[in-house]
Amino acid sequence: MVKGIVRDAMIEIIDFIRKAIDVIDDDQVNSMINVLFDTYQRKARVLVMGAGRTGLVGRAFAMRLLHLGYNVYVLGDTILPRINGNDIVVALSGSGRTRLIVSAAETAKGVGAHIIAITSFPESPLAKLADTLVLVPGRTKIAKESDYHLRQILGLHEPLAPLGTLFEDTLMVFLDGVIVSLMKKLGKTEEDLRSIHANIEI
User: Fold this and answer.
1) How far apart are alpha carbons 152 and 104 in whole angstroms?
2) Which of 182, 173, 187, 135 lies closest to 39, judged by CA?
3) Is the pLDDT score of 202 beyond 80?
4) pLDDT over 70 for what percent of the chain?
């Protein structure tokens, strides 16, 4: 059994994610899923973008979209094609202020792409660019949650999860849930995903 500070940190992260489930708006989630479902039906492209650890969560999400049969790319890859108004951009930033992601979202918005933004802050620059917005709570590395009642609901305090970890962990679990929902909506099975999974791996 895990003991000590590792156990305490794991429990804190799990408890936060459980509480976040009751805070994330179901209408926002359904809007995101419907946009992604329509994207699959239209055979349109999806660009996923995030920076740092959030970007790693984005890459995991992009990989699962690939397994579902999406035409998906990740910002920063050398094979990224030109973005146009038929495309969907999934932009991830806890603060909603990450310069690279906001700038890239502005460019995509300028050519007519649909922006799905996932952030913790509804008044952030990224949130204001969104066509579809999903607010995922989490302590980010540059900002604390200032709403007292939300802090109480989520149990936010100076945590055992430093520098934004609560957002990234919550985001990972949330996006995995989105994948499961899309599987059901698209009529995909685990075997369908396995058939697309890489057969040449390092």
Assistant:
1) 34
2) 182
3) no
4) 87
For residue 8, the 8-state DSSP code is H
What sign for the dihedral angle of Cα 184, 62, 21, 15?
positive
Average pLDDT of the chain is 89
User: Is the separation of the CB atoms in 43 and 159 below 8 Å?
Assistant: no
If phi > 0 it is left, if psi is from -120 to 50 it is alpha, else beta; for residue 132 that is: beta
Q: Which two tokens stand for residue 145?
A: 């949650």
The one catalytic residue in 168, 190, 191, 201 is 168
Closest CA to 116 of 17, 200, 39: 39
Sorted by sequence, the CB contacts under 8 Å of residue 129 that are 6+ apart come out as: 91, 102, 105, 106, 109, 115, 117
Question: What is the CATH number assigned to the segment(s) 4-187?
Answer: 3.40.50.10490
Residues in the chain: 202
Ramachandran quadrant class, 65 (left: phi over 0; alpha: psi -120 to 50; beta: rest): alpha
The verdict on whether 168 is a catalytic residue reads yes
Cβ contact 127:96 at 8 Å: yes
